[in-house]
Amino acid sequence: MLGKKIGKMIEGKEAPQGPSGVSGTGKPAEAALLWAGRLAEKPEQEAFAFQASIAVDRRLAPDDIRGSRAHAAMLGERGIIPAETAEALDAELARIGAELEAGTLEIDGGAEDIHSFIEGVLTARLGDPGRMVHAGRSRNDQVALDLRLYLRRTLPELRAELERTLSVLLDRAEEHAASVMPGYTHLQRAQPVTLGHWLCAWACALDRDRDRLGDALGRLDECPLGSGALAGSTLPLDREAVAAALGFRRPSLNSMDSVADRDFALEIAAACAITQTHLSRFCEDLVIWSSEESGFLDMGEAWSTGSSIMPQKKNPDFAELVRGKAGRSAGNLMTLLNLLKGLPYAYDKDLQEDKEALFDSLDTLQSCLRIFRGMIAAARFNTGRMEAACTGGFLEATDAAEYLVKKGLPFRRAHEAVAMIVRDCIAAGQQTIGRRSLEELRRYSPLFDEDLYPALSPSSGAGARNLPGGPAPGEVRRQIGVLRKRLEN
Ligand code: ARG
Fold first, then answer.
1. 138 alpha carbon to ligand 1 midpoint, in Å?
2. Most buried residue, 103, 154, 403, 434, by most Cβ within 10 Å?
3. Which fold has domain 143-228+252-388?
4. Does residue 159 contact residue 214 with C-beta atoms inside 8 Å?
5. Residue range(s) in the chain whose domain bears CATH number 1.20.200.10
6. Pocket test for ligand 1, best of 349, 350, 354, 355 (most atoms within 8 A of CB)
């Protein structure tokens, strides 16, 4: 009978062998049933696999070990377990961690989850001392802790990835602070801007994304360990000490909240989805700019792909994929919101589903940031074509109206006068307001003078927009400076 078999295993008479230390029986479910408790019947292999999470939570191994070491040390300090046992647990947990890192110990894919796998290895190697580590702890507070530790370990890396991407955007913005290009609204040419201004706009969005990740990290700063299954423990645990040992500001306030809360996962998934949405929009611009019709951008051959049928093709697949992956991240956020909606307090197994969505959002964002950065660094902007596109779409119309405003005409009248000029230019096949003689222009407003003409060029249009936030080269350089300073802090 299985019960007996596990009993023997637990007694250490039949310590499992094999690479993972728990798979010697060839029946992974057996080794995984460390806490079958009163349940004498073993689940079907398929059912066991269905409720297992090892394939997803294996990446929490270093965090699980870290949490267990802090917990074991506290149990020893408090005299809940003998000091030698605490020491033995610490040494063995450290060894398991090192072996996992070195690859000499493999995570058993047949285990239920990372917590049971590590406790299983510990027990197989140490016997009774291994059985002491879980005193005063539940997998509910353990997983809540592990996930927080994992995020505290990896989010700064993700943020650094974002910062490197931001920094490349700023380099390119600086290079093109004075490169004039058309700015668009409704995808119609609107007013002259600079490419540096555009790239800085993207950098501003990423700067907020970076803040959002930082905010989420701040709220993660509470240690749930000691919350047990939901109601803490009757053992004299020292929650303050464990929180401090693990680098948390404080232990969490309420044990039920600690095991039920996944706000932090929602927040981070939302921050990822927002960042992905930004990347998706940037990439949409890159795709448009790469079209023959636009011709603003040459993505370079290494950042393009060919076609299986059309030999001439050079497709912006990378930008399109980054754009497309925003859908995954939005989906992951929806998954998490729907997962939590309606869940009774405190822990429910549904919560196990949180990790796959969250990890996917983190992984997706990391790869997208890297790819987007590479693309931007390599992008060859066709500044001649950009500047040429500023002529012909009457991007100077607002400037002409503002010229009249500066001479005292009410804006609405100025708007009307220039609208008439544009209409008549189009009818006459003239591409710009500047093609009209002063005499002709004075029929629309006597306020026009010779000094109008230089004000109509794309570069003076962009250069004159030097208000804070504007596209003028000097102002763009100031914006770059502000963003660089924020990056340094
Ligand atoms: N694998 C589980 C998870 O990710 C660990 C907690 C299991 N707790 C439980 N009561 N079954 O949520």
1. 9
2. 403
3. Fumarase C; Chain A, domain 2 (1.20.200)
4. yes
5. 143-228+252-388
6. 349
Q: Which residue has the tokens 């994929």?
A: 321
- Can you give the pLDDT at residue 30? 58
Q: Is the CB of 117 under 6 A from ligand 1?
A: no
Residue 307: predicted pLDDT: 79
Of all protein residues, whose CA lies closest to atom 4 belonging to ligand 1? 352
53 classed as catalytic: no
CATH number of 2-34+41-135: 1.10.275.10
In 3-state terms, what secondary structure has residue 399?
Answer: helix
CATH class of 397-456: mainly alpha
pLDDT of residue 340: 97
For strands 250-251 and 222-223, give the pairing. Answer: parallel
Amino acid 308: pLDDT: 81
Pairwise CA distance, residues 229 & 420, whole Å: 75
Look-up: residue for tokens 């939570």? 57
CATH 1.10.40.30 domain locations along the chain: 397-456
Q: Mind listing the pLDDT tens digit for each residue in 154-193?
A: 999 999 999 999 999 999 999 999 999 999 999 999 999 9
Q: In the chain, list all ranges with CATH 1.10.275.10.
A: 2-34+41-135
Active site residue 68: no
Longest dimension (CA), the chain: 106
What is the CA 4 to chain-centroid distance, rounded? 48
pLDDT digits (tens, 9 = 90+) for 65-103: 999 999 999 999 999 999 999 999 999 999 999 999 999
What is the reported pLDDT for 22?
40
Q: Give the Cα separation of 100 and 102 in Å (integer).
A: 5
Q: Are the C-beta atoms of 120 and 29 separated by less than 8 Å? A: no
Ligand 1 centroid – CA 222 distance (Å): 19
| pLDDT (average), residues 50-58 | 95
For residue 124 and ligand 1, the question of a CB distance below 6 A is answered with: no
* CB neighbour class for 122 (10 Å; exposed up to 12, middle 13-18, buried from 19): buried
